[in-house]
Design brief:
The protein contains 6 helices and no strands. The chain has about 170 residues and is mainly α.
């Protein structure tokens, strides 16, 4: 698709949009120019006319908003807005790097790496907690069954390495 084709397509869509606005405005002006005084209510025929105009307007607008042209123009507009935002972000990132500053993209990458490391540490801690609960359950079951290899005092004692560390610190 060439630039002229794209321009022509955009022009046609804008023309269709303008035509709908002009038709709507013309119908509204015609409905309001019947010649009523400001304080008097409109007669029933004018109420019906106004209702039919509003119904016709709402139907035409709904048809237009559901039309492929409108959907295509909205898609094009959203794509252009996204492309502009991306180009804007790239420009400011390059400008920050040019003056040897920290860009938002750099900070976002560091934060993502920190979040990933945090998730990995939390997952490991959860796995260790599960293993510890399993071991505590086995020890408690052995104590309740009267297993001679596991006594209540042995399960409650601290490891010997910790006792040695305490002795060396007190010297």
């Amino acid at each position: 698709m060439t630039m002229n084709d794209s321009f022509q397509k955009t022009y046609d869509q804008a023309s269709a949009f303008q035509k709908i606005w002009m038709d709507s405005f013309t119908k509204l002006v015609q409905a309001g120019s019947i010649g009523l005084t400001p304080g008097t209510p409109p007669p029933e025929s004018l109420r019906q006319l106004r209702g039919s105009i509003f119904n016709a307007l709402s139907e035409s607008w709904e048809d237009y908003m559901r039309s492929p042209q409108f959907k295509e123009s909205m898609k094009t507009m959203m794509d252009n807005a996204i492309a502009f935002r991306k180009a804007n972000n790239d420009f400011f990132t390059q400008a920050q790097h040019a003056v040897q500053g920290t860009a938002r993209e750099d900070i976002d990458n560091v934060l993502a790496a920190i979040r990933q490391a945090e998730d990995r540490v939390l997952n490991r801690l959860e796995a260790m907690a599960e293993r510890l609960e399993q071991l505590e359950g086995k020890v408690a079951g052995a104590v309740q069954n009267g297993n001679p290899k596991v006594s209540r005092g042995a399960a409650a004692r601290k490891p010997k390495a910790t006792a040695k560390k305490v002795q060396t610190k007190s010297k």
